[in-house]
Design a protein that fits this description.
The protein is of the alpha/beta class and 679 residues long. The protein is 41% helix and 12% strand. The strands form 3 sheets. It has an 8-stranded mixed β-sheet, sandwiched between helices. Strands 11, 12, 13, 14, 15 and 16 form a 6-stranded mixed β-sheet that branches. Helix 5 runs parallel beside helix 6. The protein is globular and about 90 Å long.
Length: 679
């Protein structure tokens, strides 16, 4: 029999070995490789009627697993999150296996990204004609060509808290499982929480060049994805980013931070000021940052507010002068090139590169990346600024040349008394002084600036458009690349082009087709197991998490970890519950009094506090009159009344946290959350 997951796994390994032979790169397998997945097989021989050929494309799978198991695959309802390298390979495997191809089966796939030319080398469901199309819809069409019986729906939405109106209770309620093909941990953790709540299996995999890993998550049997996490990555010191970069990663991070502050945060601050009649009171809660906030609002709304695109070009030119000439000149004024430390060593030595100011040159092109960073910075910055203020932008060079020739740039004058942190400890001290208010009265200065600002009534209806950075938007990456490269030129750091900068800024290591095939093959073997063969009960030792590195080569398969247990006494019995457990209420939208009575009569527990998100619905210390009123209300009414928010029409469950004591011992009982179905 030919099984597509086994072909994919072995094909990935063999393909990498061929590449090693052709390129001489990486270590080949010396000797033999033995790989099996016999834990997928039925425990006993299946009857002839179960494995006899049907003349369908699935006869190989039927011969191994039987017709019943094949029907289960056909009737699966799965959610594939991501349609990149892993997503495409997974969808191909599913089309060949028949996943979601039955009358009751369905595949849902979502990805908000569009296809780029660089994707074509490793995402094999896409072709040249598909460039700029959405990945999810293109992948869905390609899978339908492979298997016309596949029932598939594509979406172009991000999976997160802001799309729960689309991927809500009613959506997950119909699924048999979720498969992630994501490129970031944050999204994986969100999907993991959804799978925990709805008790759905989660098939997780990832690649990093020749490295790959797979993790199978099964309700109640294994720990969830978020149960163990890697330590956070070491951050770049603030003083290195601000004044002493020595790698392109430092300048890219600085450019990203500047983008966020200039095109997103400043616009959000202005909108917050315009929308809040009591802005001064809101500001008082942010003592450490309020002076910077009001200065940013004044600068954006008054001093530097453009009325036409030409103003945006002038602003961009002056920003160039400030960032890449004046700030560097000020740094050299504080720390001259021949400066020595108290120990007699040169200040500008080791990792500290002595910078040089840049003179603006419209036609300048860097040697390393071959980019016109000066011109690119002006074009990208001016257009981003214009989009913030709702002004139409433009890109024609002749226009920019004419405007820039008439810009009057003030000469640099060194500022006295400017303190620049030369190391991390000085940076921390500087931050502490700023947080305490420094040498001036922050409150007085804030009040003066607020009085200078135009009143909200004078700008009724006016609003800025914050720009969220997206590495896949060329205009955003053009700015970040140019900004990073100019900073790099200041410090004699080799520059990078937009494509390479995108990879570094997004921490992207291109996927390799061989590793992708291997991990998706391993994951689909796990899908056989959790879908169910003739094994009576799935055991933990049958499941396998994979860790591979095709370069070494290294491959290991290990059993997943069982979920951690918490001991509680409930109904007089010991209950060892895990993160998969909850107290489930499926009695309809009962009243608060009926809810409390169930805890008292069924569980022998006295509820002292009941909460929904940050809202306390019931507590022993609350106003008695309010408590009595709420006890007569239905649970959904209590939630909407206290939280002041309506429950979405597609929401089926209310998540409640309970603090309760045992009625017999009066000891607090540690409980999981309550999953209350009100619809």
């Amino acid at each position: 029999s030919i099984l597509s997951p086994m072909c994919a796994a072995l094909g990935g390994i063999v393909g990498q070995e061929l590449l090693k032979a052709c390129s001489g790169k990486f270590t080949p397998i010396n000797g033999f490789l033995y790989f099996d997945a016999d834990e997928c097989l039925p425990e006993k021989l299946l009857p002839q009627t179960e494995v006899s050929p049907t003349g369908s494309r699935y006869d190989s799978q039927i011969a191994v697993f039987g017709k019943t198991a094949q029907q289960k695959l056909l009737d699966l309802n799965y959610f594939l999150v991501g349609a990149g390298a892993i997503g495409c390979e997974m969808l191909k495997n599913w089309a060949l296996m028949g996943v979601g191809c039955g009358e009751k089966g369905h595949i849902h796939i979502t990805d908000m990204d569009r296809i780029e030319k660089s994707n074509l080398s490793r995402q094999f469901l896409f072709r040249d004609d598909d460039i700029s199309e959405f990945k999810s819809s293109t992948a869905a069409r390609a899978a339908k060509v492979m298997n016309t019986d596949m029932n598939i729906s594509d979406y172009v939405e991000k999976v997160g808290s802001d799309t729960e109106h689309l991927f809500g209770d009613d959506f997950y309620d119909k699924l048999d499982g979720v498969c992630t093909a994501l490129d970031n941990v944050e999204a994986r953790l969100y999907v993991d929480q959804r799978c925990l709540f709805y008790r759905l299996p989660m098939l997780e995999s990832g690649t990093l060049g020749t490295k790959g890993n797979t993790q199978v998550v099964v309700p109640h049997l294994t720990e969830n994805y978020g149960a163990t996490r890697d330590p956070p990555e070491k951050s770049i010191p603030v003083c290195t980013l601000k004044n002493f970069p020595n790698q392109i990663q430092h300048t890219l991070q600085w450019a990203r931070d500047y983008f966020e502050g200039e095109f997103k945060q400043s616009a959000e601050d202005v909108n917050s000021y315009l929308a809040s009649p009591n802005f001064a009171e809101t500001l008082a809660k942010e003592q450490n940052t309020k002076l910077d906030t009001v200065k940013s609002i004044r600068r954006t709304l008054v001093a530097e507010r453009p009325t036409r695109f030409e103003d945006c070009v002038v602003w961009a030119r002056l920003k160039f002068e400030e960032l890449f000439k004046n700030q560097i000149s000020q740094l050299l004024h504080n720390f001259p090139e021949d400066q020595v430390t108290s120990t007699g060593t040169k200040f500008w030595s080791g990792s500290k590169r002595c910078p040089k100011p840049l003179a603006f040159d419209l036609y300048s092109k860097c040697e390393d990346a071959g980019m016109r960073n000066h011109f690119d910075f002006i074009v990208a910055a001016a257009n981003l600024r214009a989009s913030m203020f709702g002004i139409k932008g433009r890109n024609d060079e002749e226009y920019f040349r004419d405007v820039l020739n008439n810009v009057i740039v003030p000469d640099f004058v060194p500022k006295a008394g400017v303190k620049i942190a030369s190391n991390e400890s000085e940076a921390k001290e500087e931050a502490e002084v700023t947080n305490r208010g420094g040498e001036m009265d922050v409150d007085t200065e804030c009040e003066e600036i607020l009085n200078e600002l135009p009143k909200q009534s004078e700008l009724a209806g006016f609003q800025l458009t914050p720009v969220d950075f997206d590495k896949d938007i060329d205009e955003h990456m053009l700015f970040v690349t140019a900004c990073s490269n100019l900073r790099a030129l200041n410090y004699s750091i080799p520059t990078e082009d937009t494509h390479r900068s995108r990879a570094i800024a997004g921490r992207i290591i291109p996927a390799i087709a061989t590793t992708t095939a291997l991990v998706t093959g391993l994951i689909c073997l796990e899908l056989y197991k959790i879908t169910g063969t003739s094994q009576k009960e799935l055991q933990l030792d049958a499941l396998k998490n994979g860790f591979v590195n095709l370069a070494i080569p290294f491959m290991t398969l290990s059993e997943p970890t069982a979920p951690a247990k918490t001991k509680a006494i409930l109904e007089g019995k010991e209950w060892n519950w895990t993160a998969w457990d909850s107290l489930d209420f499926n009695m309809g939208d009962i009243t608060l009094q009926e809810f409390l009575d169930i805890f008292e009569q069924k569980y022998r527990l006295d509820v002292s506090m009941l909460s929904y998100n940050v809202s306390i619905l019931f507590s022993f210390f609350a106003n008695r009159k309010k408590v009595e009123e709420r006890k007569k209300m239905k649970m959904s009414e209590v939630v909407t009344s206290v939280s002041k928010k309506q429950l979405p029409p597609n929401q089926l469950f209310i998540i409640l946290e309970v603090i309760a004591n045992d009625l017999d011992t009066d000891e607090e009982v540690e409980l999981p959350y309550v999953k209350f179905r009100f619809r």
